[in-house]
Design goal:
single chain, about 400 residues, alpha/beta, Rossmann fold, formyl-coa transferase, domain 3, 2 domains, six-stranded parallel beta sheet, about 40% helix
């Protein structure tokens, strides 16, 4: 049994952040109902695809049950409210005000079910001057400062290679839901969780915020180079591969010098401390670059491993999926999709010793479990469900 076994979750969310949160809850054992209208979540249409459904959708929605429900119709809104009365958690990521226009805002849903936890994910939060603005991950990266910090020092701002603000917002939403569930154990009352993509991105800036406000220092792009220690950068090996080497302190740098047979450099005041190496960055990096250029990447990794110095070849995705450590840990999982099709994807990162977190099933087709959900949650009989289908409500 998973840690959230018996929990009931309504997933009204689309695209990435909200569905990702709901998928984590499903991996933890919750029963998650993916509610879709019409043709379903727009993410289903994004390439690349598997059997006509987007891989993007698959990796955000495993283990859920699919319910078709037209929330534009009063009958659909009434069914949603009936489902809310039975639910523990609701996740949504509409533009703020959308749920209120349907008569399903926080005040209305809390009145129906005081124990409900409602996680609301949006670009900028539920209030403030930007609240009603639409927002996708790239806009949040741009506005949060992340893009301005990403890329080479002498190049343009660069988007990260993944939807980092969406993913972090989904994680914060999950944390908020779990915290609210724990609080409910004490108080018996649910609460609203308010998550924004902008704040999620800005939360990753580490010292950039206090350094800006207190010292007036604006952090800039730095490529692969570390900001506080030296050496810390990607260096090109003799075989053309790039290798990341990081010496996080004086003892680590001493081990590095021993590994490359240059211990005499410890007597050079330019390299005697981290502060000195940062002040003499070009000379410090030249030592590492020269040694790396004379060895292939595998030799560098092996030598650094023996020395206890963090180092890794810059891996492509093709190499990452064959990483022996990830394989050993079972990180990449195979999710059966029916018809003999199995879909490999990233597995849960959270590991619990007694209540396993594990994928609970395939990605649902749009509305696949409509009858089963309406029957088990609300006690609807086949005749009533057929009537709702005829009227286009489900």
């Amino acid at each position: 049994m998973g840690p959230l076994e018996g929990l009931k979750v309504i997933d009204l969310a689309r695209f990435v952040a909200g569905p990702y949160c709901a998928m984590i809850l499903a991996d933890m054992g919750a029963e998650v109902i993916k509610v879709e209208s019409g043709g379903g979540d727009s993410l289903r249409l994004y390439p690349p695809d598997l059997g006509g459904t987007s891989l993007n959708f698959h990796v955000m929605n495993r283990g859920k049950k699919g319910l078709s429900l037209d929330l534009r119709k009063p009958e659909g809104q009434a069914i949603l409210k009936a489902l809310v009365a039975e639910a523990d958690v609701l996740v949504e990521n509409f533009v703020p005000g959308t749920m209120e226009k349907m008569g399903c805002g926080w005040d209305e849903l809390r009145a129906i079910n005081p124990r409900l936890i409602m996680s609301r994910i949006s670009g900028f939060g539920q209030d403030g001057p930007y609240a009603a603005r639409p927002c996708f991950d790239s806009a949040a990266q741009a506005m949060s400062g992340l893009m301005d910090l990403t890329g080479p020092a002498d190049g343009p701002p660069v988007l990260m290679g993944v939807f980092v603000c969406d993913h972090v917002a989904g994680l914060y939403s999950t944390i908020g839901v779990l915290a609210a569930l724990q609080a409910r154990e004490r108080t018996g009352q649910g609460q609203m969780v308010d998550i924004s993509l902008l704040e999620s991105g800005a939360s990753l800036l580490m010292t950039a915020i206090p350094n800006q406000i207190l010292n007036g220092v604006t952090m800039g792009r730095n490529g692969a180079r570390g900001r506080t220690v030296a050496p810390s950068n990607a260096f090109q090996a003799g075989d053309g591969r790039w290798v990341l080497i990081l010496c996080g302190g004086d003892d680590m740098f001493a081990r590095f010098l021993k590994a490359i047979d240059r211990l005499e450099l410890l007597e050079d005041p330019r390299f005697a401390s981290n502060a000195a190496r940062v002040a003499n960055l070009a000379a410090t990096e030249a030592i590492v670059a020269d040694w790396c250029a004379r060895h292939d990447s595998a030799e560098i990794e092996a030598a650094m491993g023996r020395a206890g110095v963090p180092s890794a070849k810059i891996a492509s995705v093709a190499e990452m999926v064959d990483n022996p450590q990830l394989r050993h840990r079972g990180f990449i999982v195979e999710i059966p999709q029916g018809g003999g099709v199995s879909l490999p994807m990233q597995g849960p990162v959270t590991r619990l010793s007694e209540t396993p977190v594990t994928p609970r099933g395939p990605t649902p087709r749009a509305g696949e479990h409509t009858e089963a959900v309406l029957e088990s949650w609300l006690g609807y009989d086949p005749g009533r469900i057929a009537e709702l289908r005829r009227d286009g409500v489900v």
